[in-house]
Amino acid sequence: MFGVNSAGKSSVLHSMHFMRSVLEHHNLDPSGSPFAADDIDLGGFLNLLHKHEVGRRMVLGYSIDLSTIDLPEYGTTTEFSISERVRSAYVEFAFGLDNQDRSPRIEYYLVNLNDQDVALVLPDEVNIANGEIRSAFINLRHPLLDSVAQSPGTAEDPAANAPLVLRKLIPTSQLEDAQRQRSDHLENSPSATELEEYQAQRGHRDLLAYTLSGFVNGIPRWGKLVTHFTDDDQQGEPDSDDTRVLTRQVLSELTTGPLEVLRNLLSAGRAVGPLRSIPPRRLALDGHPKETDWYSGLAAWQRLLECSDAHLQEISQWLSDSDRLSTGYGLDRIVARELPEEVLRSLVTGNRMPADLDIETFPMTKRVLLTDSLNRVKVTPHDVGVGLSQLIPVVVAALDRSSDLLLVEQPELHIHPRVQVGLGDLFLRAACEYGKNVLIETHSEAMLLRMMKRIRQTQDGEMPAGLTPAKHSDITICLLQNEGQGVTLTLMRLNRRGEFIKAWPKGLFEESLRETF
């Protein structure tokens, strides 16, 4: 993601922090972040809304490749299950403020599987203020539900053959509805009455309507079958034959499974902030690093203390090798025993040691040092330029295999352009070889130019040995601009040789060219 300051890059990243809080903690009004604890102050839901306008709807959507991920299983597996036939998912959430108490709420969420809408979950009309009760509409015409009785299309009713777009049935918020009326586009916009009209005309053939319970702030409880409202309401009417068409297992797979996959992906993600901390000289080894310490960079130094020798060597080579980051420094880990002062004094002065002294009983300590490649001098992170302390957490996070999602802010901070180009190779290795999704906020043209160069070299068969080949489809370049009417995002597409298909708006990195010529 490129863009001038305050163009909206950080807002994109903050939306990921917000969504993880929603899915992981059912918290719709977070101040801190599950990625970064209190190192990020999101300021609550209203602060995240565009222009902080009450009545505005915030929509977040996520596409998920499920070719190598299975949907969760709920309850006892039955013969009819959709999990094995799902290749992709798209989940969309809309958030707004309650008109009465101004608390945030989920206005709807939509589930799309294999590129067709399959489930729409809304607040229950009768219990609209109750976040635990939801209405769900299931698209019986979805191909995944082909074994369920549905209405076949006819020549007189060709619409029955077309995919059912549940998005058209989403009620608009009051503000959006008013804006559409002013724009004279109301006749083409979805409305609350459109759902009622659809249900009256053909909804009994194409839609199943459920009333579900057990939600928390509009989000399902994870790992549990969804519950029909009448299952636990002894005074309610028993489930109708229509609602028994889908088992609770399949209903859970449709309305909860993709959300749980998204939650797991976000929960396993890492975020590295724009200002990484220099570790203390005596960093304590206290087990696994805290996930929230990745944002400050301290978790990366902790990982260096506990990782395998092979992984430490890999990180060290990335830092030192001339065809990679070429910083002039590698890494070395020292493992030693901490001896009491009197024992050290005896060793230095040559005095005899007690016969019963057992060195193995003294505590073990580990330290990670930087080794100057030229002089072979070992130094601490405090003894070198601040750029290395900013770079090393980025390198460790990128090469860490335990997470498939990495959010990075300004990885080039305090780093020479010669090292910045190496970051391009580093992120290509993480994405193309380790399968990591990396979302980068940057101002570094050097890093981008290196990625574009690698695409060209791969296409022309000139890729240097030992580096990661790349295709134009491996990289998405987003230009964010804010010209007073809201943020616009432009995809800067590349051709097969890594060249921009269309010119960069106002010229490619025109500041550099203007200063050069």
Automatic annotation (TrEMBL):
Q: Which domain of life is it from?
A: Bacteria
Q: Which InterPro entries match?
A: ATPase_AAA_core (IPR003959), Bact_Antivir_Def_Nuclease (IPR051396), P-loop_NTPase (IPR027417)
Q: Name one Pfam family in it.
A: AAA_21
Enumerate the spans annotated as ATPase AAA-type core domain: 2-445
PANTHER family linked: ATP/GTP PHOSPHATASE, EXCINUCLEASE ATPASE SUBUNIT
What is the recorded name of this protein?
AAA family ATPase
